[in-house]
Amino acid sequence: MKRRMKNFIIILSMFFALNSCTVGSDSDREFILLPVEEVEMPPSYTVGNLSIIKIKYKRPTDCHIFNGFFTNYESSNIYNKVVAIRTVKLNNSNCLADESMFTVDYEFKPTEPGTYTFKFWLGPDANGTDQYETHEVEVL
Length: 140
Description:
Elements: H1 2-19, E1 29-34, E2 38-40, E3 44-45, E4 51-58, E5 64-73, E6 80-90, E7 101-108, E8 114-124, E9 130-139
C-alpha cells in the first residue's frame, strides 16, 4: 500500500511540476498523463543494445498531443521503472472526441544485467488506486 501511494504521489508531483513549467498562459495548455492500453515487448534484452518497446494508448480528444513518456525509477532503482504516456492538452473549444489508438516507441538501452521490472500505468481504478501492467524482463 505504501508503495502504491508513493507511486501516486510521484506521478502527481511530476504532473504539477510539468504544469508549472509551461510557457505562455497557463490556460492555453496543460500536461496530462494518459494510461497505457497495450504493451509489446520481448522477454529478454542484451546489455548495451537499444531495444524498442511498442506502447499503445488512446487520446481522449484531438487536442491531446503526445509529449514523450513519464518515466520514474522506483526507490531510485534502475531495475524498477514506472512508465506512463505524457501529453500536452491544448485548451481550446474546438477539441473533438478522438478514441483512436496510437502506437509509440519507448527506447530501452540497459546498462546492467539483471531482471528489470516495468510497470506501465493503466490509470486509477474506481477507488482511485493506480493500476499497472507489470512486465519482468531479463537483461543478459
